[in-house]
Specification:
Shape of chain A: elongated
Order of helices and strands of chain B: EEEEEHEHEHEHEEEEHEHEEH
Bound molecules: flavin-adenine dinucleotide, adenosine monophosphate
Strand order of the largest sheet of chain B: 11-10-9-12-8-1-6-7-13
Number of helices of chain B: 7
CATH architecture of the largest domain in chain A: 3-Layer(aba) Sandwich
CATH class of the largest domain in chain A: Alpha Beta
Structural class of chain B: alpha/beta
Oligomer: heterodimer
Helix content of chain A: 25-40%
CATH architecture of chain B: 3-Layer(aba) Sandwich
Number of domains of chain B: 1
């Protein structure tokens, strides 16, 4: 290509802020981003689009960012797809010309990364488990699970446009922070106004958080599947039963969500949440690969299933073959006793 | 409402992991010949969402599928959609579509949607169960320059706009987008696909469905199939899932439960 514009250069991570700090997946992006930057002999930048972005700049630098772009004047108060795409389009075509752009495979990343990729006519590999730089071509090589996780596919991406990837949560290590790391902090104007906003936010409803911990950070998660008879049984045995006595967060399969046993926000898996607790107890869960995508990072999986051939037992450390109706009452009772002792 | 629903045929995602094999040289996933083919589950949710809107406000539903398998098999899915209540169905089929990725597919579908004329909504599934990309819906929107949203579980028709529920990590948002727009639909208990009635099945069986080639779409050859792809498949492999489950067996289910608690406690897991 004989144009006189500079070649794309550097890695850009698109960070997310939750509750005033960088979200865990953003730290994972920085860890991987720094490795890719080193492999290419380039720098790692991160962009934060958030009113409070400034508060997170040092945290980003400590975790590996060489440069932090702060955009605090986006036209929408919170994530809005169309305007965020326009902001990033400007950043990637005018301000900097990154060689690689990284996102987290989150609800936001799933919305934003494809929009930007199509806008820039750039290739994007979503939900990656591994990233590498090809030593010869210096191109990004990205591996992701396909067919629900039954197969792993490795892709290379077209040159000349940013090479884009979104990263699965918990598939990459967050780096140890180094408070002495130096970096540059650059406030930037959003460069778009209210006319870039397309989705009108009428209402935002946050799920009332029950006393229990949240799924993402819980030490113990108890999940129920379609094996549970109905909502009442789910409530009695899982939410108010096993989860309550263990102080665990409540998860569910897509089967349970589709059956109305739990709201979608509790879905664990490929298209739900990714959890990594110390203990994951799966009750009436068949162990479909799409479900396991969300919990295979658990240190210990315990399965209770009536079918001894259920696939969940291939992932479990401990298993009981039996109906939850017969197993859970004693399980809950014994756990209570343990608690008291 | 005039709604277009994009449906893709995939191998039944519920087939066992042991059915999967890969041909590393040909970079192909090999499955048993009799592995069932189904409409991608999220596309069934999208179709159901469209049917519910039609039940409420009337209008027309057109389903579109870009064939990635022999046309005859995909036509079966399109007829199933008609039997469930869709009005029209169009198959996009051309050897030139082969070897495409999300970019080429979104472009071809966008060209087909343009050719269909006026519409209010395009509905896609959140992601297709074969390559699990989750890109094409947003790609159609970008190609057509239309607003879009993902993770939508409920839609209400308005005047010149639609109001929707979009799932977010810890709850949901209610959004309004002007029409026409493109929505990617997620699963929800209220979007379980309806069962086709026998009369619908018989009627659909007799229909001749239009098949559009790349030329019929006036598609730019450099943007379809392999030529339009921005990613290249390098390698396929099977992951290794090798668990070793210790089954806890007591005299009774209750005893098994008690033994499990002991075991978890001595292992310091709880
Ligand atoms: C693109 C795509 C994305 C997907 N994403 C997700 C996702 O994010 N998360 C997800 O979970 N799924 C997802 N799925 C769906 C997934 O493929 C499975 O269909 C789903 O996980 C099955 O849920 P289940 O285990 O509850 O139900 P089932 O597979 O029906 O299993 C029920 C289990 O309960 C057992 N059982 C029955 N009675 C009892 C009893 N009395 N006591 C104990 N056990 C009993 C049965 O033996 C069985 O093993 C996705 C699918 C696709 C195509
Ligand atoms: N070949 C196709 N034909 C029709 N619709 C498709 C096709 N490929 C993808 N889609 C639609 O786009 C959604 C997302 O697909 P993907 O980006 O491939 O995961 C699917 O759920 C379908 O609604």
């Amino acid at each position: 290509m004989m144009d006189n514009k500079a070649d794309p250069k550097g890695i850009l991570a698109v960070g997310e802020i939750t509750a005033g700090t960088l979200s865990p997946i953003s730290l994972e992006l920085l860890g991987m981003g720094q490795k890719l930057a080193q492999a290419r002999g380039e720098e790692l930048s991160v962009v934060l689009i958030d009113r409070q972005a400034e508060n997170c700049a040092q945290e980003a630098i400590a975790h590996g960012a060489d440069r932090v772009y702060l955009i605090t004047d986006a036209p929408a108060d919170q994530y809005e797809g169309a305007s965020c795409t326009a902001i990033l389009e400007n950043l990637c075509t005018q301000t900097i010309k990154p060689a690689v752009v990284l996102f987290g495979q989150t609800v936001t990343g799933r919305d934003l990364a494809p929009r930007l990729a199509f806008r820039l006519k750039a290739g994007l590999v979503t939900d990656c488990l591994h990233l590498d730089i090809d030593p010869d071509s210096r191109n990004l090589i990205a591996t992701k699970p396909v067919s629900g996780g039954n197969v792993l596919a490795t892709y290379s991406l077209q040159e000349g446009v940013p090479q884009m990837a979104s990263l699965r949560h918990r598939a990459f290590d967050a780096p140890e922070p180094d408070a002495h790391r130096q970096g540059e902090v650059l406030p930037l104007p959003a460069g778009v106004d209210a006319s870039a906003v397309q989705a009108k936010l009428m209402e935002k409803v946050l799920e009332e958080t029950s006393e229990g911990p949240t799924l993402e950070t819980a030490e113990i998660v108890v999940s129920g599947g379609r094996g549970l008879d109905d909502l009442e049984e789910f409530d009695k045995y899982i939410t108010k039963g096993l989860a309550e006595v263990l102080g665990a967060a409540v998860g569910a399969t897509r089967g349970a969500v589709d059956g109305g046993l739990q709201p979608e926000q509790h879905q664990i898996g490929l298209t739900g949440k990714i959890v990594g607790p110390k203990l994951y107890i799966a009750v009436g869960v068949s162990g479909a690969i799409q479900h396991m995508a969300g919990c295979s990072g658990a240190k210990n999986i315990v399965a209770i299933n009536i079918d001894e051939n259920a696939q969940i037992f291939r992932f479990a450390k401990f298993g009981i073959v039996g109906s939850y109706k017969e197993v859970l009452p004693t399980l809950i009772e014994k756990l209570k006793e343990l608690e008291l002792s | 409402m005039n709604i277009i629903v994009c449906i893709k045929q995939v191998t039944d995602p519920d087939i066992p992991a042991s059915d999967y094999a890969v041909d590393t040289a040909a970079k192909r996933i090999n499955l048993p010949d009799d592995a069932p083919l189904v409409i991608n589950p999220y596309d069934e949710n999208a179709l159901e969402a469209a049917l519910q809107l039609k039940d409420q406000t009337g209008g027309k539903i057109t389903v579109v599928s870009l064939a990635t398998r022999p046309a005859k098999r995909v036509l079966r899915d399109l007829k199933q959609a008609l039997a469930m209540g869709a009005d029209e169905a169009i198959l996009l089929e051309d050897p030139a579509f082969e070897g495409g990725d999300s970019h080429s597919t979104a472009y071809a579908l966008a060209k087909a949607i343009q050719k269909l004329g006026e519409f209010d909504l395009v509905l896609c599934g959140l992601q297709a169960a074969d390559w699990d990309a989750g890109q094409v819906g947003l790609g159609i929107a970008e190609n057509l320059g239309l607003p879009s949203a993902t993770y939508v579980t409920h839609i209400e028709a308005g005047d010149g706009h639609v109001r929707m529920i979009r799932m977010i990590e810890n709850g949901h948002e209610v959004l309004e987008l002007p029409t026409p727009c493109v929505l990617s639909i997620a699963n929800d208990k209220n979007l379980a696909p309806r069962i086709a009635r026998l009369a619908g099945i018989i009627k659909a069986k007799k229909r001749e469905l239009p098949v559009w080639s790349a030329a019929a779409l006036e598609a730019d050859p450099s943007r379809i199939g392999t030529a339009g792809a921005r990613t290249t498949l390098h390698k396929l492999a099977l992951p290794d899932i090798t668990g070793s489950c210790e089954f806890i067996k007591g005299e009774s289910p209750a005893e098994s439960a008690a033994l499990l608690v002991d075991r978890l406690h001595t292992e310091k897991i709880i």
